[in-house]
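cron nightly-structures :: item 1 of 1
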Amino acid sequence: MTDVTTAGAFPLGGRSVNRMGYGAMQLAGPGVFGPPKDRGAALAVLREAVARGVDHIDTSDFYGPHITNQLIREALHPYPDDLVIVTKVGAVRGKDASWIPAMTSTDLTAAVHDNLRNLGVEALDVVNLRFMGSGHGPSEGSIEEPFTVLAQLQRQGLIRHLGVSNVTSAQVAQARGIAEVVCVQNHYNLVHRADDALIDELADIGTAYVPFFPLGGFTPLQSSTLSEAAGELRATPMQLALAWLLHRAPNVLLIPGTSSLGHLHENLRAAELKLSRDVLARLDVIGENNVQ
C-alpha cells in the first residue's frame, strides 16, 4: 500500500499536512457543473483518499455548484481531526455553466456561508480568495477590498485561515499586509513555470504553494522526455510530473484531482518516487524550453 507520508509534510492552516493531497473539482459533472455520473464512485474516491493518508482536500462551493462540498460532507462528516479542507470564493456559476466573478462584500459573505452550510462546519479551515484573472493566469490590480472582507469574516470566527489564488507576487504581498496568508494556489506544473520565483519567495517565509493544474489541466502534459524518463522509472508520465513537483520545493503541496479510484491510487504512488539529479535535470529542461 502506498505511503503518502514518504513525500513529507508542510504546515497549512496551523496544522502539518501530508504534501500529497486531493482536489475535489473533478467530482462534479462535465465542465465542473452538475452532479457526477456516478455518485457512489465519487463518495468512494473521497473515502479512499482519506483512508490512504490524505489529510488535505481542496474544494469550492462553486464546483457544481455546491456538488463537491455536499459530496465531501456525505462521505466524510464528521471529519477526522487531522483533515484540513481548503475552499475558495470569488466566483459563482451561471445557468449556462459560465464562471462569473463575485467579489463584492455581499458576494463573498454569501459564499462563505454557502461553504459553511454545505460542508456542515461552524468555521472553515482555510478560504482562498480566487481571482478570475485572464484565463488561468493572474491579472495585476488591487486585492485590498475583497481580501479585507474575508479578513473581517475571519475575525468573526467563520474562517480560521486565509489564502489567495491566481495572484501575482505583488498581490500576495498586499494580502499579507492585511492578514496572514497561509497558502497561495496558482497555475504551475512541469511546463508552466511562471511562478518559479514566487515559489522560492514563499518557501523562504514558510508559506505553502499549491499548484493547480499540476498535470496540465484540461490539456494533459505531453513530452517525449517525460515519457522516456517515466518508462525508465517504471512509472507513468503523470506520476513523474507529480513527483517532480514534490521535488521542486518543500513548500509545494499537491492536490491532483480525479473521479476514479484507479487514478487516485496512481496519483498517490507519486509520493514514493525518488528522482535522481540526472532525471531532475532532464525534466527541468522541459520547462525551460516550454515544450509540451
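cron nightly-structures :: done
The chain has a mean pLDDT of 94.
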